[in-house]
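Why do we care about 3D structure at all? Because function follows from shape, and shape follows, mostly, from sequence. That is the central idea of this module. The next example makes it concrete: a single protein chain, its amino acid sequence, and then its structure expressed as tokens.
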Amino acid sequence: MSWTRATVLAEVRSVIVEHADEGTEVGDSTELVSDLGIDSLGVMELVGDLEDRFRLRITDADLRDVVTLADVARAIALRLEGEGRLHANEEGKP
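And the structure:
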């Protein structure tokens, strides 16, 4: 699949919503730990789901500065860009 920043953000949101309590508001500035209360086991499950969804490996170093949903999406987009799997526009063209 080819990704854009918008589709990465949407997919990250979708995965995070699966891990949030039902009815919890999830936005770009939602903090994974303080707003959603995801514990260390939950973070590992979330990371596993994100790795599966984006077909990439997420290291502890990748998570060091990640706090919000937008941070997660930005980190994944950067990784996809480095692998040549992120496209600049919605048509999937660089």
